Structures are given as structure tokens and as C-alpha cells.
Amino acid sequence: MTALRSFLFVPGDSERKLAKAGDLPADALILDLEDSVSQANLPTARKMTRAYLHAHQDRARQQLWVRINPLDTSFALEDLAAVVGGSPDGIVLPKTYSAAEAVRLDHYLSALEAREGIALGKVGILVVATETARSLFTLDSFIGATPRLYGMTWGAEDLAAALMAGTNRTPAGAYEDVYRLARSLCLAACRAAGVEPVDSVYPDFRDLAGLEAEALQGRKTGFTGKIAIHPDQVAPINRAFSPTAEELAHARRVVAAFAAGVGTVSLDGKMLDMPHLKQARHLLERAERLPSP
Ligand code: COA
Ligand code: MG
Prior knowledge:
- This protein has two domains: about 5-240, Phosphoenolpyruvate-binding domains (TIM Barrel); about 245-290, no CATH class.
- Helix 7 (about 210-220) runs parallel beside helix 8 and helix 9 crosses helix 10.
- The protein contains ten helices and ten strands.
- The protein is α/β, with parallel strands linked by helices.
- The structure holds coenzyme A (COA) and magnesium ion.
- Magnesium ion binds near residues 35, 155, 157 and 158.
């Protein structure tokens, strides 16, 4: 599967933003039916989202995902019934408690794919895995839960609400410990499940330097992509999640240094062993799977 660097949220009821989104360099859009849409506008948003999916069937450059409402609301099934016919690349599932909901979504999708004549299993799932208090104790349930799982992301805003916290930031602006824990658990759970870890939004969309620093830190930590909320955030995210020419050159030198089949070597005065070789191979492999710039 193509590795997606940037996912851009687009409110599903905004004609203006939908019109703009297709020309942006986001690897994927997330057409939103959840928190950025009011309940009164939800029926309109479903129609507009379905129309957008139908009108944009060529997804080679940009995938189209849809965030539905949580499965424990009365809106989720209608959201799905409205949009699956447009063959979305995937569904973003918010506010989960455990993998049980991802499995339930898998079954719903199978039924709807059959109804719509879409290949079984085509629609993927991206779970927003840390938006409820309970979710922090069940992240390992996603291991092997459903082959539809593309990846998982995490959320600090809804988690703060779930924890009845007044804020999720320290006075200096960093995340409080429990949100850093949620982020780390999400990353580890993704790697354990063999799916893509996608970093959360950077809400201050006017601070592009801060966004790029967070995105770079995210990639170095192991995330493979990040979610954007504003057009200006897309290019910095794409940049941050593409390895640089220097990184690629270094990775090639590391692989070459091990070519003789030895277990440990020295390169530029540093000891390298198997973990370094694995990291270098992983970086090169991932670079091959990135969309061309
Ligand atoms: N997708 C597509 N286009 C967007 C966009 C988005 N997410 N956010 C802004 N734009 C467009 C605006 O419509 C505007 O274009 P226009 O001048 O042709 O109307 C242009 O980009 C510049 O926008 P700007 O004026 O800087 O921002 P704004 O005040 O209009 O919007 C937000 C700010 C945060 C409300 C908006 O970016 C947004 O809706 N983001 C997504 C929110 C969301 O989905 N949240 C749920 C997940 S957390
Ligand atoms: Mg939310």
C-alpha cells in the first residue's frame, strides 16, 4: 500500500473547502462528518460527501477517506450507508474503546461493499485510537483485529474532554504526560499490529515552524504521517515525512558497509550493528513507497 504522509481534514459540509481541497498536495483528504459538522448540517454533509466521492474516482494522486461519527451514536450507520457507495479509500473511526468497534465496522463495510458491488475488503480503516479513557488500556486489542486496518492515530482534544481536564498542555505549551503517553502507546500499538502510525493534528495552524518541528520529531520517533487541518500545513508535513537526500545517501552507505555479510562494522568512526542496518533498510524501503514529489 502507498504510504500516506499527509491527511487533510475537510469539513464535509463546506462547499468552499471541498472545492479547494482537491488541488492541494495532501496525500489523502479526510472528508469529515463528525466534529467539524453540526448535527443540523449532517444530512447535507452526507450528501455533499457522497457527491464528492462520486465526482473524484481517480485516487492515484490523492486518496479520499471519510470520518464517520462514533459507532455508539445513532449517526454512524447512516453515515456509512451514505458514503460507501462512493468507494472511499477508507473510513476514519473516532472515539473507540477497543478493537471491538473496528471489527464491527469491518462487518458493516463488508455488507455495504456487497450491496454496492465494491471488492470485498477494499475500504480501509484508520482508527483514532486514544479519544476515550478506556482506550488507553486496550490498545493491544488492535493486534490482528482486522485486515482492513491501515493505521491508527491519536487525539489529545477528545481525550482531555474524556479525562475531564481543563487543558492538555503545560504552561510552557508542551503536552501533559498523559497525552504523551497516549501518543507513545499509539505508536507502539501500531508497530505491534503492523499498521501505520499517524501523528495527530497541530492545532495552531498559523505556527508553521512549530508544525514542521513537531512533524519532523514525529517521523524520527517512528510515525509515518500526520494529520493536517489547514491547507498551509500540508507542504511542511509532506516535507517532514520524506527522507532527505542526505538521509538516503547515509542509509545506502550503511547498507553497503554490511555488504560483506559481517555483523558489525565501523562507519565514520561509529560502531554499527544489526539495528542500524534494519533502520537503514527501513528508510530506503519506505522512500520507495512514497508518492513521487
Ligand atoms: N480544507 C480545504 N480548504 C481549507 C481548509 C481545509 N481544511 N481550511 C481552510 N481552507 C481554505 C479556506 O476556505 C480559505 O479559502 P477561501 O479563501 O477560498 O475561502 C483558505 O483555505 C484559507 O483559509 P483561512 O482563512 O486561513 O482559514 P479559515 O479561517 O477559513 O479556516 C479553520 C480555519 C480551522 C476553520 C479551517 O482550516 C478548517 O475548517 N479546518 C478543518 C477543521 C476540521 O475538519 N476539524 C476536524 C478535525 S480536528
Ligand atoms: Mg474530535
